[in-house]
Design goal:
single chain, 269 residues, alpha/beta, 8-stranded parallel β-barrel, two-stranded antiparallel ribbon, 9 helices
């Protein structure tokens, strides 16, 4: 098997909570979880997260900083203080990566200092700050640039990147070309599918138009040793049984395509 570990984002079980994500990840055999820090109090409680990780024997591989619209007041309102707290959480929980979005355009001072600030913070810790690609917001025929310096982070000198395939679909760009631009700075993957809708869909891999299988094969062939995190939307599942079936399907898809490329590579050696 390739070195990449496959994790479950705690956001993938919504409307169930963070505690349920640990239980499901452990039962299905995920290698770990990425904690989405949001309005669920458990996601903000480092001691409780450690207890859940120990109880379910599920490592916390990454922490997603609270930088969504709905988390503007989680861990305070100062965006730099949020990142400091996310770094501290990652260090205490043994996570290697903090996922962070580019600033919103109206966060002017934060956006102005963001590139240099991420470089500085990355130099102060072994935790990787992996900046995630976003997408332009669309309303009817209008396109709004909501992020600064840009929704596509590959034009900036960040030490590490997260590629999110659902966001690639929403931005209507080429996923593999974006990964090529990220190069060896690609540290983290949010695996999900999309159809190119203006909505950020986060479909189960294989149910949209994104090259999910091709990306996984490429990662395995290139010896990618970061994390592949299933960040999918299961809120329309009729109930817990169907939600768990979707998450089992997503895990099987990911492992199958990572292993297929690794097996093919070993067979040629």
């Amino acid at each position: 098997m390739p070195d990449a570990r496959v994790a479950l984002s705690t956001a993938s079980v919504y409307p169930e909570n963070t505690e349920a994500a640990f239980e499901i990840a452990g039962r299905l055999g995920y290698d770990g979880v990425e904690v989405m820090v949001w309005t669920d109090p458990i996601s903000q409680d480092i001691d409780r997260l450690r207890e859940l990780s120990d109880f379910h024997q599920v490592p916390i591989l990454a922490v997603h900083a609270p930088c969504l619209l709905i988390t503007q007041r989680v861990w305070g309102t100062d965006p730099w203080a949020k990142l400091v707290k996310a770094r501290s959480a990652a260090e205490r929980l043994g996570a290697s990566t903090v996922v962070v979005h580019p600033p919103f355009r109206w966060q002017r001072q934060y956006a102005r200092d963001f590139v240099l600030g991420i470089q500085r913070m990355g130099g102060e810790t072994d935790v990787r700050f992996a900046v995630e690609n976003m997408y332009p917001w669309r309303y009817r025929d209008r396109e709004v640039a909501a992020y600064a310096p840009a929704w596509d982070p590959t034009g900036e000198d960040y030490p590490h990147f997260t590629v999110d395939l659902s966001h690639v679909a929403t931005s209507r760009t080429d996923a593999l070309a974006m990964v090529d631009r990220m190069g060896d700075r690609l540290a983290h993957v949010h695996l999900a599918d999309g159809s190119g809708s203006a909505k950020d869909e986060h479909l189960i891999p294989g149910r949209g138009t994104q090259p999910c299988a091709e990306l996984l094969e490429r990662l395995a062939a290139n010896g990618f040793d970061g994390h592949v995190v299933l960040e999918v939307n299961t809120r329309r599942a009729p109930g817990p049984v169907e939600r768990e079936a979707d998450l089992a399907e997503a895990l099987a898809f990911t492992r199958l395509n990572l292993a297929a490329a690794a097996s093919e590579l070993s067979g040629t050696q």
